[in-house]
C-alpha cells in the first residue's frame, strides 16, 4: 500500500484544528467545522415524501426524501398535488419526532384532509401567512427555541408583502418587492436553518415562462416560479409537478367518479447528483384514503430493469432466487401482498433504479426525461 504523505508543520505553525478554534472564538459560535465530522452541510436525515420512487431518485445511491437541514421547493401546476404531497411529508416528519409549522396563505387547508393524510393535528401548528416578512421573521424566532422543525410554506406565490397588504391594487407600486425581501431573508436564514437542523419546504406555483427569448428556450424552459432568483439559489432541491391531461390519468371509482389523478414529477434541481430525473405516481384526493398511491407506481419504476419481461399483456418478474412469475398489470397490487414478490421488487428498485444510476450503468435515457434534452437545430 502507498504510504500516506504527512505534511510537517513549520516551527511555530498551528495545525488546522487549532485554527478552527481561533475562528470559532472570533465568531462567538461554531462556524468552522471538520468535514470528516458531523457538520451543517452534510445531510444525515431525510423526510420521506410518501413516494418510494421519488425518494429513490432524489439522492444518488440511496433512498432519500426531503433533506433535513436544507431549503426545498415543491412547485407545480394547478391541481397537481402540491398540498397533498406536503401533507404526507408533514405526517412523516411527525413520525420522526419533528415538529411541524404549516404557514398557509391560501386558507384552503382542510383539517380532516390533513388528518387522513397522516398528520397529528394536536402536534401541527397552523399559522396564517399574513405576509412574507411575517413568515421569515417567525421562522427566525422559532429556530431559537431548540425544537427540531419542519416549516411548510403554502404558498410563496400567494403570500403578500407588507407593502402589498397596506398598498393599493396597482402591481406597479410594489414591483420586485417580494424578490428583494426573499433575497435578504434567504441570506439571513440559510445558515441558521442548517445549524438548527431544521427543514424549510416551500410550495410554489409553476407559471408560463413569458421571458423565454427563443423558441428553443420556450421548449426547454416552459415554466418559471415566482419569488426571484435568490430562492432558486437557496434551494437544495426543487421538485416540479405537472399533470397529464389524458382521461386515463385519472383514478375513478366504480361509478366513474374521479377520486384521484396522475402526477408527473421532475427534479428541476438537486444538489445530490440527480438533476433532471423523473418519476410519476397517482394521488388520491376524493376518497377516504388520501395521499400517494405508492406501491402502484413501483410497476413503472422497474420498467427499466431486465428483470421485468413483457409478452403482450403478460409480464414476467425474475425473483431474487432466479425463479420467474407471470402476471398481468391489473394483478400488480395483489401480487405485492406476497412477501417474495414484494422483496424482489424492492431489490430491483435498489439495484436498477438507485445503484445503476449511481454507477452509471445501462442507458442514460432510461433515467432522464426525453423532454429534458435540448432540441437539435
Distance between the termini: 52 Å
Q: Indicate the CATH architecture of one domain.
A: 3-Layer(aba) Sandwich
Query: What percentage of residues falls in helices of 4 or more residues?
Result: 25-40%
**What would CATH call the homologous superfamily of one domain?**
P-loop containing nucleotide triphosphate hydrolases
CATH class of one domain: Alpha Beta
CATH topology of one domain: Rossmann fold
Query: What's the main sheet like?
Result: 10 strands, mixed
**Number of E-state strands:** 17
Discrete helix count? 12
Order of helices and strands: HEHEEHEHEHEHHEEHEHEEEEEHEEEHH
Strand content range: 15-25%
- What is the global morphology? globular
Structural class: alpha/beta
Our Rg estimate from Cα atoms comes to: 23 Å
Poorly predicted spans: 373-377
Mean pLDDT across all amino acids: 88
